C-alpha cells in the first residue's frame, strides 16, 4: 500500500526529464546533475519521495514551523533591544552635541542643567546595570571596589532636576530624532534637501515604506542571483561534461587518423624537398656556367674540353691497364708464398741483369 502511495507521489511529480528537473529544483543545495539521476534511478525515486516531506533547505514541515516561531520570537526580542538601544544612543548623541555646542557658543543655564542631569542619570543607570546583572543573568557577580547599586543610586541628581529633565526630554528627543530623520532623508535623496519642511515631513512619512520596498527588491534580486548561481553551476558542470566528451572524441579522431595524415604530410614534404633540391641544383649549374663565362673565353673553354677529353681517355686506359695488372697479380697470388719467394728472386735477378746491361753499355761506349 505504501509502495503504491509513493508511486503515485512520484507520478504526480512528473516523468522522464521533468522528474529529474523537479528533483534538482527541490534540492538546489545538492551538487547533482541530471546525468547522476539518470544513472541512479532508485536514488532519483528516493529524492522524489523525500521532496514531499522536506523543503529546499532540507527541513521537515514541523521543524520548519518551530523554526519560524523561534525566528519570530527572536525578531520581537531584537526589536525591543533595538528600540532601547536606539533610544540610549540618541540620548548619548544629544549629550555629545550639547558638549560641542558648549565649546563653540554660550549655552543657557537651564539647558546646561538639563543635559548635565540627563548625562548623570545615564551614567548612574549604566553603573547600576553593571553592578546588578540579575536582570540579564542568573549568576552572582562579585562587587566592584565594594560598590553596590544602592550606593551608586545616591549619586543621582536631585528629584527636582530629574523631574524637570523628564518633562523636557520628550520634546528635546523628538527634536533630535526629527533632525536625524531629515539628515537621513537628505542622504537618501539629496535633491530633496532644498524642499520645504512640510514637504520633507510628508516624504519622510513614506520613507519607511519605500525603504521596505527596496529592501524586498534587494532580497528578491539576491534570491534571483542565488538561483542564477545554482543554474550557472549546473550549466558549468554540463558544459564541462560535454567538453570532456568532445576532447575524448577529438583524441580518438587524432589517434585513428594520425598515421594517414602523417603519411600524406611526409609525402608532401618529400615532394617539396625534392623540388627544392632540384631547384638548388639548377641554380648551382647556372652559377657554374656563369662563372665559366666570366672566367674563360670560348677558345680556352674549347681547349680545356679537349685537354679534359684526352686526360679522361688516358685515365680510362690507365684504369684498364691497372685492372689487367690486378688480374695478373691476383692470379699470381693464388700460387701462395712459394711463388712469392720465387717472384722476389726473379725481381732481384732482373735488377742485376739490368744493372749489368747498363754497365756493359757504358763500358762499350767509353771503349769506342
From TrEMBL:
Entry GO CC: HAUS complex
GO molecular-function term, one example from the UniProt record: microtubule minus-end binding
Coiled coil (residue ranges): 301-328
Keywords from the named record: Coiled coil
Matching InterPro entries: HAUS4, HAUS4_met
GO biological process: centrosome cycle; spindle assembly
Protein name (Swiss-Prot/TrEMBL): HAUS augmin-like complex, subunit 4
Organism expressing this protein natively: Oreochromis aureus (Israeli tilapia)
Amino acid at each position: 500500500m505504501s509502495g503504491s502511495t509513493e508511486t503515485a507521489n512520484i507520478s504526480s511529480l512528473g516523468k522522464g526529464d521533468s522528474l529529474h528537473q523537479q528533483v534538482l529544483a527541490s534540492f538546489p543545495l545538492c551538487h547533482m546533475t541530471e546525468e547522476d539521476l539518470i544513472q541512479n534511478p532508485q536514488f532519483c525515486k528516493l529524492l522524489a519521495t523525500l521532496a514531499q516531506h522536506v523543503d529546499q533547505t532540507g527541513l521537515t514541515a514541523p521543524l520548519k514551523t518551530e523554526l519560524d516561531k523561534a525566528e519570530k520570537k527572536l525578531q520581537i526580542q531584537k526589536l525591543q533591544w533595538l528600540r532601547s538601544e536606539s533610544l540610549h544612543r540618541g540620548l548619548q548623541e544629544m549629550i555629545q552635541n550639547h558638549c560641542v555646542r558648549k565649546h563653540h557658543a554660550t549655552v543657557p543655564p537651564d539647558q546646561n542643567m538639563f543635559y548635565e542631569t540627563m548625562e548623570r542619570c545615564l551614567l548612574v543607570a549604566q553603573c547600576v546595570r553593571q553592578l546588578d546583572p540579575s536582570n540579564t543573568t542568573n549568576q552572582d557577580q562579585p562587587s566592584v571596589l565594594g560598590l553596590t547599586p544602592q550606593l551608586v543610586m545616591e549619586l543621582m541628581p536631585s528629584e527636582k532636576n530629574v523631574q524637570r529633565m523628564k518633562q523636557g526630554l520628550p520634546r528635546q528627543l523628538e527634536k533630535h530624532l526629527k533632525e536625524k530623520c531629515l539628515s537621513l532623508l537628505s542622504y537618501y535623496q539629496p535633491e530633496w534637501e532644498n524642499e520645504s519642511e512640510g514637504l520633507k515631513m510628508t516624504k519622510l512619512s513614506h520613507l519607511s515604506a519605500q525603504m521596505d520596498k527596496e529592501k524586498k527588491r534587494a532580497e528578491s534580486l539576491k534570491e534571483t542571483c542565488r538561483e542564477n548561481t545554482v543554474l550557472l553551476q549546473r550549466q558549468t558542470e554540463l558544459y564541462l561534461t560535454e567538453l570532456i566528451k568532445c576532447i575524448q572524441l577529438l583524441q580518438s579522431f587524432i589517434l585513428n587518423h594520425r598515421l594517414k595524415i602523417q603519411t600524406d604530410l611526409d609525402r608532401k614534404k618529400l615532394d617539396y624537398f625534392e623540388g627544392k633540391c632540384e631547384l638548388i641544383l639548377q641554380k648551382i649549374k647556372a652559377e657554374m656556367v656563369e662563372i665559366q663565362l666570366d672566367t674563360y673565353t670560348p677558345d680556352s673553354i674549347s681547349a680545356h674540353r679537349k685537354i679534359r677529353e684526352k686526360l679522361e681517355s688516358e685515365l680510362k686506359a690507365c684504369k684498364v691497364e691497372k685492372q689487367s695488372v690486378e688480374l695478373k697479380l691476383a692470379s699470381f697470388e693464388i700460387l701462395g708464398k712459394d711463388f712469392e719467394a720465387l717472384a722476389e728472386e726473379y725481381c732481384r735477378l732482373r735488377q742485376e741483369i739490368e744493372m749489368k746491361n747498363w754497365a756493359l753499355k757504358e763500358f762499350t761506349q767509353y771503349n769506342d
